[in-house]
Write a structure and sequence with these properties.
Layout lengths: L1 H20 L9 E5 L3 E3 L2 E3 L7 E3 L4 E5 L15 H18 L1 H11 L3 H25 L1 H4 L3 H11 L18 H14 L17
Parallel strand pairs: 1-5
Antiparallel strand pairs: 2-3, 4-5
């Protein structure tokens, strides 16, 4: 999984590096680390249960729990599920390279309201979702992206919304409808300017 994820990351850097450099954003290559059980990082301790992958800006690393690949995670049923998952976490790497991730952290730290922190988190996650869609659009020809692929990704995200079980899920990633909407926005436009969740109305990032 680490080897495959690393190849995907190199492809993402190849796709986005030059266009972002033209706007003064230097894009380095993040690492990918697969792990079993738990792993301690500067961003916290990551487990096998929970998110199917994590990005930590402190180490510029995408952490990938290996037992999430046992068929229990819905992304494993989509042909491009692995690609989409890495592209989403790479979206957070883009946010880090551009300074948006640090600005998000600063705002979240200064905000005392839990609901406002959740709103900021949803804006962050849904933008990464949109960035994921942009990569799928840009690499669509080489990936042989089809209507069936889009359908499978949409089905996957019907299980990832904040409204879905388990009951311990927090409202910090957006509803399934919002995730699919921002994914499609990136897919249909292939335009970073269409991914500005920070100025989007609250109803668009619920």
């Amino acid at each position: 999984m680490s080897s495959y994820g690393t190849k995907l990351v190199r492809c993402l850097v190849k796709a986005f590096g030059e266009p972002l450099a033209a706007h003064g954003i230097e894009l380095n290559t993040p690492k990918v680390k697969a792990y079993r059980k738990t792993i301690k990082t500067p961003c916290g301790r990551f487990h096998q249960r929970g998110a199917p992958a994590y990005y930590c800006s402190a180490t510029r690393t995408i952490y990938w729990p290996v037992t999430g690949d046992d068929g229990a995670e819905a992304y494993t049923y989509a042909r491009l599920g692995y690609v989409a998952l890495v592209a989403h976490e790479f979206g957070h790497h883009l946010q880090s390279a551009s300074g948006m991730l640090s600005e998000y952290g600063l705002r979240a730290y200064r905000t005392k309201s839990r609901n406002k922190r959740y709103l900021l988190s949803r804006r962050l996650e849904l933008q990464a979702q949109c960035f994921e869609g942009i990569f799928l659009a840009v690499a669509g020809r080489s990936l042989e992206l089809s209507s069936d692929d889009r359908y499978q990704l949409r089905i996957w995200h019907t299980y990832t919304g904040d409204e879905d079980p388990p009951t311990s899920r927090k409202p910090d990633h957006g509803s399934s409808a919002a995730q699919i909407r921002w994914l499609n926005r990136g897919l249909d436009s292939a335009d970073f300017g269409r991914c500005n969740t920070w100025k989007a109305k609250k109803k668009s990032v619920k």
